[in-house]
Write a structure and sequence with these properties.
Blueprint lengths: L2 H14 L1 H7 L7 H10 L5 H9 L2 H16 L13 H21 L2 H14 L1 H21 L2 H9 L10 E4 L15 E5 L4 E5 L7 E5 L7 E10 L2 E11 L12 E5 L11 E6 L2 E4 L9 E2 L5 E2 L9 H31 L15
Parallel strand pairs: 1-5, 2-5
Antiparallel strand pairs: 2-3, 3-9, 4-8, 5-6, 7-8, 10-11
Helix pairs in contact: 4-5, 5-7, 6-8, 7-8, 8-10
The protein binds flavin-adenine dinucleotide (FAD).
GO molecular function, one term: fatty acid binding
Main location: other
Protein name: Fatty-acyl coenzyme A oxidase
Length: 354
């Protein structure tokens, strides 16, 4: 018999002895908690020190842990049944959470509130996204593109306190996502009435994917082609009311649909919007960069791209959030690998013939 064949035979025989060996010396099974402590003790560095380093200092770790404890104890953030509830129930819960978080917006400094939201996203990314669409995109567009007088006006209307105003951000169209300069929605200045007419001229100009549009937003910042006296000036942003703030019925000329269930983040109600000759006051155009006077004079900024700034922050936030979610996934996978016990790892069982 060749030595190769002898080795294979010995290996097969070792399998046949499994039951006997396993019965002889049944190893004591470790509990998952024991396995985890054992793995943790193997660390060759100070885990706590690394945590402080990753959080930016001990103070920030303490703040993060405080947020985590608050969320664990807050029943509005319960997630244990999230796979049993419907899309509509998840969306309702999202709006309940708004109430619990709103007061922190003005009570906490921005970096601390940002940390709170990053912690929340680890628990409920759908809520984080809906809240982020209002504060990051809608409110961010007001902050970045409104004059200071316009900004104060929208804050007084409830944009900061979410008092009678919940925002969304209507930039993307069915036919145009990356190409913001090529958007088709129009905003035509009507000098006689001192108004803009917001209009969706084609199917591909339908605003698409708009987070919060399907049910929850009362207002939106719309990106549209500015047209004054027949001349096009490129894509600018305009505040448009979508729904009655009390009854939530659609305003005249607004047509909205629900994009429906997604692969994740169902807490946010993404929808589509069509505008049919919707009239808004001229002053609803956000005029920090480009200005249109009562007489129809257009003053343009040195850099037209400034208009698109609002989404940059949103996109950066999505990348940071993806990083945090990936950290959570790696942590779960690492812990699972440390405690998962399957088959036998006794040398009797998997002994290879030498
Ligand atoms: C869940 C979800 C929520 C969203 N919420 C909102 C919202 O609230 N408001 C809103 O306005 N939008 C929203 N969007 C839309 C989002 O901003 C767009 O999906 C994004 O801007 C990309 O546009 P697009 O999907 O049309 O892709 P496209 O523009 O068609 O791009 C498709 C691919 O081609 C690449 N590409 C595009 N142009 C070029 C080029 N010139 N050269 C090389 N590569 C190119 C892109 O990088 C991409 O990989 C949402 C999208 C999703 C999926």
């Amino acid at each position: 018999m060749s030595s190769d064949a002898a080795q294979r035979l010995a290996f097969v025989q070792s399998h046949l002895q499994v039951a006997a060996c396993a019965n002889k010396e049944e190893p004591k099974k470790k509990t998952p908690v024991e396995s985890m402590s054992e793995e943790r003790e193997k660390a060759t560095f100070d885990v706590r020190e690394l945590t402080y380093f990753l959080d930016g200092g001990e103070k920030f770790t303490q703040i993060r842990e405080k947020f985590m404890m608050e969320l664990e104890r807050d029943p509005t953030f319960r997630m244990y049944d999230m796979y049993d509830v419907t899309k509509d129930q998840i969306r309702e819960r999202t709006m309940e959470k708004f109430r619990t978080i709103v007061h922190y917006v003005s009570a906490e400094p921005v970096p601390i509130f940002t940390m709170r939201m990053q912690t929340i996203s680890l628990i409920d990314p759908g809520f984080w996204t809906r809240f982020g669409v209002h504060y990051g995109l809608f409110f961010g567009a007001l902050r970045g593109s409104a004059t200071s007088a316009q900004f104060s006006h929208w804050v007084s209307k409830g944009a900061l306190a979410l008092n009678g105003m919940v925002g969304c951000f209507a930039m993307t169209e069915l036919g145009h996502g990356s190409n913001v300069a090529g958007l088709e929605t129009t905003a035509t200045f009507d000098e006689a009435s001192d108004q803009f007419i917001i209009h969706t001229p084609t199917i591909t100009a339908t605003k698409w994917w708009i987070g919060g549009a399907a049910h929850t937003a009362t207002h939106t910042v719309v990106f549209a082609q500015l047209i004054v006296r027949g001349k096009r000036y490129g894509t600018k942003s305009f505040v448009v009311q979508l729904r009655d703030t009390r009854t939530y019925t659609l305003m005249p000329g607004i047509n909205i649909g629900d994009i429906g269930k997604k692969m994740g983040r169902d807490g946010i109600d993404n929808g589509w919007i069509q505008f049919t000759n919707v009239r808004i006051p001229r002053t609803n155009m956000l005029m920090k960069h480009t200005k249109v006077s009562r007489a129809g004079e257009v003053k343009e900024p040195p850099m037209a791209q400034l208009t698109y700034g609002a989404l940059i922050q949103g996109r950066v936030a999505m990348v940071v959030d993806s990083g945090n979610i990936a950290k959570k996934a790696v942590t779960i996978a690492g812990r699972y690998a440390a405690v998962r016990r399957q088959f036998q790892s006794s040398p009797h069982v998997f002994r290879r013939p030498s």
